[in-house]
């Protein structure tokens, strides 16, 4: 081979090597898409940071919203590696579509409270006190709305809500903004908010609120294992959730 040919060959090899190296250098961490109930927002933000600190090769991407909306997105083909739902029904919808890997696991539990402005200016003490007030609930198809209706039925109370919201964060925000006198939402929703407080419900009207997690792809296996760890459970408790 002539010197000119050798030079051309070396240049070509260097170009290939350079291209390969560049490709390797721009390849980022593995993305893991986690679709999670809106009520898990702050807790999952912290769980994401903790997991990524220990696993810098993984980028957890959170898709937050109402559980029923997320389930519909997943069934319709939206990318997701893990689904964390505020109710078993939404998980079942995804599993029945053949999209889950293995059985769902119970992540945490929650409870309902009556959400009122800080200081409880209306003196609300029970669900019956809400009848004459402007109250906001979650829509019937939303987990927090279905749970609220279950509690109201158990208490024998009928309300005429001023609005029905698409997720629990929207429910609480109406009270925070002064658009409603009260709402029924999760206890975890008021933990970090100074503008509102939660009035506990008696045990005999408190529904069983269970959060389930369903693995959708192998890519989220490590994060699922982390969620079951003592460290992750301690984080969830710090944000007001109870253990499974």
Automatic annotation (TrEMBL):
Question: Might you name a Gene Ontology BP term for this protein?
Answer: molybdate ion transport
Q: Which residues form the signal peptide?
A: 1-23
Residues bound to molybdate? 39, 67, 186
UniProt cross-references to InterPro entries, sorted A to Z = ModA, ModA/WtpA
* The keyword Metal-binding belongs to this UniProt entry's keyword annotation: yes
Q: Which Pfam families match?
A: SBP_bac_11 (PF13531)
The cross-references to NCBIfam families, in alphabetical order and at most eight, read:
modA
Q: List the Gene Ontology MF annotations in alphabetical order.
A: metal ion binding; molybdate ion binding
Keywords on record = Metal-binding, Molybdenum, Signal
Family membership: Belongs to the bacterial solute-binding protein ModA family.
Gene3D superfamilies in the cross-refs: Periplasmic binding protein-like II
Q: Does the keyword rRNA-binding apply?
A: no
Q: Provide the protein name.
A: Molybdenum ABC transporter, periplasmic molybdenum-binding protein ModA
Query: Per its UniProt entry, which superkingdom is the organism in?
Result: Bacteria
